[in-house]
Amino acid sequence: MKSKPVLAVLALTACTALVVASAAFAGKAQTKVKIKAESGGFYGYVKSDKKKCANGRKVVLYKQKGKNPKPGKDKKIASDIAQANGTKYMWSTGNTGYMKGYFYAYAKQIKGCDDGVSDSIKAQK
Predict the structure, then answer these.
(1) CA distance 116 to 94
(2) Residue 24: what are its φ and ψ, rounded to 5°?
(3) By three-state DSSP, how is residue 88 classified?
(4) C-alpha angle with apex 124: 67 to 105, nearest 5 degrees?
(5) For every one of its 125 residues, what pLDDT tens digit does the chain have, with 9 covering 90 and above?
(6) Does residue 123 contact residue 101 with C-beta atoms inside 8 Å?
């Protein structure tokens, strides 16, 4: 009965393949970007289950041209690096000088972290 060792090796190989596949599909940590308008400027927060996906994350502010955010086509206005502020990771652009239209914040994908895009909001006058 030499088939038992062969079956055991095949079963072990299948289990190993499943473990490797599940690790590959575990994916990147979700990233959420929040935005708020204030007196000609913008600020917000980056949130993630992984600290590295929020702390030190570059956030770019865009002026939205169409109906939906398109970081590759919309106008880049400013950027900042999210930093710890209490238990949250905050970014701020200060006064941008752009007072009309809709804006959103975007953090592009980095290793181990998904990209994140905020809701679009109207600038505050």
Answers:
(1) 21
(2) -70, -35
(3) strand
(4) 50
(5) 455 555 554 455 554 444 333 334 558 999 999 999 988 799 999 999 999 999 999 999 999 999 999 999 999 999 999 999 999 999 999 888 767 899 999 999 999 999 999 999 998 87
(6) yes
The answer to whether 101 touches 66, Cβ cutoff 8 Å, is no
Please name the residue ranges forming H helices in 1-125: 3-25
**What predicted TM-score, i.e. pTM, was given to this entire model?**
0.77
**Residue indicated by tokens 């652009």:** 93
Characterize 7-43 residue by residue with b for buried, 16 or more Cβ atoms within 10 angstroms of its Cβ, and e for exposed.
eeeeeeeeeeeeeeeeeeeeeebebbbbbebeeebbb
DSSP 56-86: T-EEEEEE--SSS--TTTSEEEEEEE-EEET
Tokens 């400027």, residue located: 41
Nearest residue to 42 (alpha-carbon basis) of 125, 118, 123, 101: 123
